[in-house]
Amino acid sequence: MSTSTLFAATSGFDSLTGGEVMVAQNIAFAIMAVTMLVSAVRMVTTRNVVHAALYLVIVLAGAAGIFILLGAEFVGVTQVMVYIGAIVVLFLFGIMLTKGSFGDDDGVDGERRSMAAMVGALVLAVMAAALIDTFRDAELSRAQPSLTADIGDLIFSQYIVPFEAISVLLLAALIGAIVVARGD
Amino acid sequence: MSSAILAIELAYWQQTVLRALLGLVAVLLPAGTLVYLFLFKMMSFMQSRLGPMETGPYGSLQLLAEVGKFLQKEDLIPAAADRVVFKLAPFVVLISTFLLVLVIPAGPDLWFIDIDTGIFLALAVSSISVIGILMAGWASASKYSLIGGLRAAGQLVAYELPLVLAVMGVVIQAGTLNVQGIVMAQASGEIFGWGGIGNPFILTQFVGFAIFLIAVQAELTQPPFDMPVAESELVTGYLTEYSGLRFLMFFIGEFATAGIFSALAATMFLGGWYVPGLDPTDNLFNVIGPLVLIGKMVLVAFLIFWFRFTYPRFREDQLQQLAWKFLIPLSLVNIVATGVLKVVF
Q1: Rounded to a whole number, what is the distance in Å from the CA of B148 to chain A's nearest CA?
Q2: Which among B33, B65, B69, B314 is least surrounded, fewest beta carbons within 10 Å?
């Protein structure tokens, strides 16, 4: 199946604005959303740190799937590459190198639960407000998914300053990590 | 006759079923071919012996006998193991393999998915197998498995960088991430104005090809990069506690991935399903394309297994130094050179 057919089967998002309802796309979204929610809850409630990291993989994979459903192919694949392929692997690597015990961890008791819940709620509120405010009237293009070449052109023309700023930030983080690890 | 076959129109669900079955074939066929041709026969000939000869003509049915043997074995799970994670780990590795095969086209109209991000998707899903290996190493509750899993993860993460960077040169030259686009760019390319054989990227990207093959060798944890499964010190690393069907799944995953990476290298550097002298949009390629691709895949796989049977094992520090101090800088230079030449010409 080419992406254009995939996208055609998945462009039911403006069903709210009077378009036809796309059943396949809605079912796919529902399955991914429910899986992500269940895994996210399990991730913060499990007492086993390795299991928590593995539940995180499911959540991130679901996010990648939803990006692809929205026609943001490049973002979806980047999600898999960076988060699943690198960051979670790093988590697991760190846990396995340092963790002495096998199985459930009694140290994981969630004593700062209320604090974490508050931060979580705040982030949710800020993100939701910002996203709804920005994309309230935006409509997805039905013609085709966003092309990688177009994203590249945008990053290196319109968004060059934020892009360079993020690059410098990452470089600073990299150097900072080396300085901390060297310890002198 | 080829046009009669190609004239058949299939409904969407029929295409989906057909693609799922062909995906299964595309994973198992290369795995079987490589195991028989190289692991059973070529390795034996290199060591002055015949290899399996009893089962079928020249031992060609040995593979089925081996599969039957593994299926009969008891599915052992260590008492202390994390049962769910232990059972899931081989599936995660196989998911990575099955997703990887999707991006490779076998003809102008023969593909599983023809997506814009093609080669980037392949590299992304190939990194999922690391999680399966870490899961296997940790869930076995055995120190050999854990050390093997950690070594594997360290190695796979280190060699993923040169793998990605080597592909970058091809992408710059072809001007697209789409795998079909890369094949077409080679088929319609010209060497200093002479278009007789197209422009297979191995000519201009030979450095990338070499880095890609070395990185693939390390990604497959094959000798000389087999520290994660070094049998003299770690039994068989993360595979130690696996038996029967689950071991077979890891085994198929390894050799299928070897085949698929070979096919990917053949597609990116040797022109894929295209043979020079014909029009790349010719319907004929929908028939002979898969055979051409398999031929080129076996050729690249021959190189991979030749190295496997020839070189002794690296030490862990040598292995990391090769990746970080040699391959990554070299591939960065390759990218810069390709970019400059692309702008100049």
Answers
A1: 12
A2: B69
Q: What value of ipTM does the predicted structure carry?
A: 0.81
Query: Cβ B131–A84 below 8 Å, yes or no?
Result: yes
CA B242 and chain centroid, separation? 23
How much is the average pLDDT of B158-178? 87
Query: Does A47 have pLDDT greater than 70?
Result: yes
Please, are residues B280 and B187 in contact by the beta-carbon 8 Å criterion? yes
How many beta-carbon contacts under 8 Å exist across A and B?
A: 87
Q: Mapping DSSP to helix (H, G, I), strand (E, B) and coil, where does residue B107 land? A: strand
Q: What is the pLDDT of residue A2?
A: 45
The upper half-sphere exposure of residue A165, i.e. CA atoms within 13 Å in the direction of its Cβ, equals 4
- Residue B169 Cα distances to A27, B22, B330, angstroms: 40, 31, 12
The answer as to whether B251 is a domain residue is yes
Please write the tens of the pLDDT for every residue from B229-267: 777 777 777 888 888 888 888 888 888 888 899 999 998
Give A-chain residues touching B105 at CB under 8 angstroms.
none
* B141–chain A Cβ distance below 8 A for any pair: yes
Q: Do A97 and B137 touch (CB under 8 A)?
A: no
Q: Which token pair is B182?
A: 């890369």
- Chain B residues in contact with A92 by the CB 8 A cut-off are 131, 134, 138, 153
Classified as helix, coil or strand, A6 is helix
Closest partner residue to B128 (CB to CB) among A51, A85, A103 is A85
Domain limits for position B249: 76-344
Q: What would the two tokens of residue B218 be? A: 């390390």
β-sheet bridge partners, residue B194: B191
* Contact residues, chain B, for A52 at CB < 8 Å: none
* Record: contact A81-B123, CB cut-off 8 A: yes
Backbone φ, ψ for residue B165 (5° rounding): -70, -30
